[in-house]
Design brief:
Layout: E1 10-13, H1 17-29, E2 37-40, H2 43-53, E3 57-61, H3 66-79, E4 84-89, H4 94-103, E5 107-110, H5 115-126, H6 134-159
Parallel strand pairs: 1-2, 1-3, 3-4, 4-5
Helix pairs in contact: 3-4, 4-6
């Protein structure tokens, strides 16, 4: 991981202790020191810590209280636009993942990802890339197709 500059500190807003522990181990394996990783299950506490610690990378579990967490991401990106925000969620929530990206997340990890998949996604995000799961790609394409069809219909109406 020597080719990347590690953004620190890290904040984790994670509701599942087992996954938080797994993510801690992965981040330590990438070279992150534990003293620069803070975590909470509480969004209000995360908002307070945001002012004190100015984390450069935030992992946020979107499974519970998603609307409030999406608002938090939007506010965070207004305050600290350069921070990396990585959504944590299950694969079945494609719409939620799309909403997270629209709110400002740079990428995501899924609860069921292997350690290698999580490391690859994190590295890709840190290099400026964005992982794209096939379900998300299909969802984006379907929305684009719907948008194009609606736009064509509106244009046809305005010609008449």
């Amino acid at each position: 991981m020597g080719e990347l500059t590690l953004p620190v500190p890290i904040m984790m807003i994670e509701d599942q202790p087992a996954f938080k522990h797994r993510l801690d181990m992965i981040l330590m394996g990438l070279g992150y020191p534990t003293e620069l990783m803070i975590s909470t299950q509480n969004l209000a506490e995360a908002e307070a810590w945001l002012q004190q610690h100015l984390p450069n990378m935030i992992f946020i579990d979107l499974e519970l209280n998603s609307p409030a967490k999406l608002r938090f991401i939007k506010q965070l990106k207004q305050i600290h636009a350069d921070s990396y925000v990585i959504a944590i969620l299950t694969e079945q929530h494609t719409t939620l993942l799309f909403d997270a990206i629209q709110s400002g997340t740079q990428g995501y990890v899924f609860h069921h990802h292997t350690e290698a998949e999580m490391i690859n996604n994190i590295k890709s995000i840190l290099r400026g890339g964005a992982p794209l799961h096939h379900n998300l790609a299909q969802y984006i394409l379907s929305r684009q197709t719907q948008y194009s069809e609606n736009k064509s219909e509106l244009e046809d109406l305005s010609v008449d």
